[in-house]
Design goal:
The chain is of the alpha+beta class. It is built from five helices and four strands; from the N terminus they run ααβββαβαα. It has one domain (19-134): VSR Endonuclease (Endonuclease, Chain A, 3-Layer(aba) Sandwich), CATH 3.40.960.10. Strands 1-2-3-4 form a four-stranded mixed β-sheet, with helices on both faces. Helix 4 (114-120) crosses helix 5 (122-131). The protein starts with a helix and ends with a helix. Bound molecules: zinc ion.
């Protein structure tokens, strides 16, 4: 049986802040020696991680909530399709707008998708976006 403490931890995860995929990415960034800041509220969309040295903001996106294109995890639930499609379309439009404006402000925007995280691991993805891209 679950303790109420672990249940409230789950609720926190559901709300989207400090969710597990994000923690995994953070830990990996640490181990690669990348310096970052968290949830800068002065930036649009409060990027999960910001890497000042790399002029890069990074979002760790859940495939469903951010509607990862052509991804099995982004499939809409059978019931209430219209509700979900309106809600999630709004999320996607907001993401697009945020990314575009951040880029206009000179940031490089990196999105790490939940499913890629499962497939490739955080270290591999970060190396691709940071270490290898600088060579
Ligand atoms: Zn996905």
């Amino acid at each position: 049986m679950r303790s109420s403490e672990s249940r409230s931890r789950n609720m926190q995860a559901v709300r989207g802040k400090n969710t597990k995929p994000e923690l995994v990415v953070r830990k990996a960034a640490h181990s690669l020696g990348l310096r970052f800041r968290l949830h800068r509220s002065d930036l649009l969309g409060r990027p999960d991680l910001t890497f000042p040295k790399w002029q890069t903001v990074l979002f760790v996106n859940g495939c469903f909530w951010h509607q990862h294109a052509n991804c099995a995890r982004s499939k809409l639930p059978k019931g209430n399709k219209e509700f979900w499609s309106t809600k999630l379309t709004r999320n996607v439009e907001r993401d697009r707008r945020n990314y575009r404006l951040l880029e206009e402000q000179g940031w490089r925007v990196v999105v790490i998708w939940e499913c890629d995280l499962h497939r490739s691991g955080a270290i591999g993805l970060l190396e691709k976006h940071f270490i290898r891209s600088s060579i």
